[in-house]
């Protein structure tokens, strides 16, 4: 039998507690160490017998005997924590976003390449079974041409988020998903933002992404909606996919006619046939941990790696720049900038 993997966890906020649960219940992992500056959080953290507890995350990374580290700390702490783990040769699963800024993300990517250490990014929606099935069907040719992708991620204001706005915290999910669905990255972005409740950052973003193929992406993210909404729609030549992240429901509506027919000068409208795609419901966070286990066991590239995370941060920051400067931002030189290191 293979020995369980010894994981360290940094951060016991709402997301950190979810990671703690799946690590503690996974048959191939044990929680070897946990770190959080809040004594009450450490006191209540469940773990295997002998789990070490640290107030200082950097001390945990330096002192504990670990196979991997899961970083669920505030976004602005991701870079120093990830660099500390990489310096020790320890693989890292970093909660999204990879970092708060492109420069911080570049530092993580450069260090991981130099030390040949694997860095996986917690873009957990990529592990949603409905998203995976939608991607499989797209690759199988259900939509030969994608016209538009629309993503909505909305919910109540989270008091826990103080260091970044909704674009970097939530929008990076959707930026990553839209790129993955399109199979390419945008060359131009535009956005409008608003600040209603957050003390220092935007809490609403409407963003547009233009892809090389001509496809258009739209993301609607906010912390102002009183109930959680998580949806994705992809419209193309043969029809439309609709996905609900929360229920893991996926449907495909087929176009019944290729071109509108004119009757008495008016274009007729016919509803397409709707098919519900069967999905095996699984918890995306557990699937993400399964992937981290695979990476630790094999040393292979993660499904969502540091470069993917860096792109999401760079595009999100492009959206913020577009809103601030009130103009479209050209991203055509972004590949050369992100690979310069």
Walk me through this protein's architecture:
- The protein folds into two domains: 5-123 and 286-293, NAD(P)-binding Rossmann-like Domain (Rossmann fold, 3-Layer(aba) Sandwich), CATH 3.40.50.720; 126-284 and 315-334, Dihydrodipicolinate Reductase, domain 2 (2-Layer Sandwich).
- It is 35% helix and 26% strand.
- It has helices spanning 14-25, 39-44, 57-63, 78-87, 102-115, 129-139, 166-182, 284-298, 306-325, 334-339, and strands spanning 5-10, 29-35, 52-54, 68-71, 91-95, 119-122, 146-154, 188-194, 204-210, 216-222, 229-236, 239-244, 249-254, 262-263, 266-267, 273-277, 329-330.
- The protein has a nine-stranded mixed β-sheet with strand order 16-13-12-11-7-10-9-8-17.
- Helix 4 runs parallel beside helix 5, helix 5 runs antiparallel to helix 9 (306-325) and helix 7 (166-182) crosses helix 9.
- The mean pLDDT is 92.
Please specify the SSE layout and strand pairing.
Blueprint: E1 5-10, H1 14-25, E2 29-35, H2 39-44, E3 52-54, H3 57-63, E4 68-71, H4 78-87, E5 91-95, H5 102-115, E6 119-122, H6 129-139, E7 146-154, H7 166-182, E8 188-194, E9 204-210, E10 216-222, E11 229-236, E12 239-244, E13 249-254, E14 262-263, E15 266-267, E16 273-277, H8 284-298, H9 306-325, E17 329-330, H10 334-339
Parallel strand pairs: 1-2, 1-4, 2-3, 4-5, 5-6, 7-10
Antiparallel strand pairs: 7-11, 8-9, 8-17, 9-10, 11-12, 12-13, 13-16, 14-15
Helix pairs in contact: 4-5, 5-9, 7-9
């Amino acid at each position: 039998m293979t020995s369980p993997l010894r994981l360290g966890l940094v951060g016991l906020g709402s997301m950190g507690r979810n990671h703690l649960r799946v690590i503690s219940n996974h048959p191939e992992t044990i929680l070897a160490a946990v770190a959080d500056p809040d004594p009450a959080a450490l006191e209540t953290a469940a773990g295997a017998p002998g789990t070490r507890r640290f107030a200082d995350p950097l001390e945990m990374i330096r002192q504990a005997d670990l196979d991997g580290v899961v970083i669920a700390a505030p976004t602005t702490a991701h870079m120093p924590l990830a660099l500390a783990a990489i310096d020790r040769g320890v693989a890292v699963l970093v909660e999204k976003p990879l970092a708060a800024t492109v420069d911080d993300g570049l530092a993580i990517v450069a260090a991981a390449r130099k030390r040949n250490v694997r860095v996986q990014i917690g873009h957990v929606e990529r592990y949603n079974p409905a998203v995976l099935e939608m991607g499989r069907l797209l690759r199988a040719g259900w939509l030969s041409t994608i016209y538009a992708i629309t993503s909505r991620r909305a919910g109540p204001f989270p008091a826990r988020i103080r260091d970044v706005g909704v674009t970097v915290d939530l929008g990076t999910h959707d930026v990553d998903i839209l790129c993955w669905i399109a199979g390419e990255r945008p060359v131009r972005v535009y956005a409008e933002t608003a600040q209603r409740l957050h003390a220092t950052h935007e809490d609403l973003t409407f963003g547009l992404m233009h892809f090389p193929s001509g496809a258009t992406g739209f993301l609607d993210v906010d912390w102002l909606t009183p109930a959680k909404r998580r949806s994705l729609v992809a419209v193309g030549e043969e029809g439309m996919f609709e996905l609900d992240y929360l229920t893991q429901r996926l449907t495909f509506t087929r176009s019944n006619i290729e071109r509108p027919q004119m009757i008495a000068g008016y274009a007729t409208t016919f509803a397409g046939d709707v098919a519900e795609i069967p999905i095996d419901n699984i918890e995306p966070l557990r699937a993400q941990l399964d992937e981290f286990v695979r990476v630790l066991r094999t040393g292979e590239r993660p499904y969502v790696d540091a470069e993917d995370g860096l792109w999401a941060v760079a595009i999100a920051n492009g959206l913020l720049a577009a809103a601030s400067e009130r103009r479209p931002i050209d991203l055509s030189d972004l590949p050369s900038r992100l690979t310069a290191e």
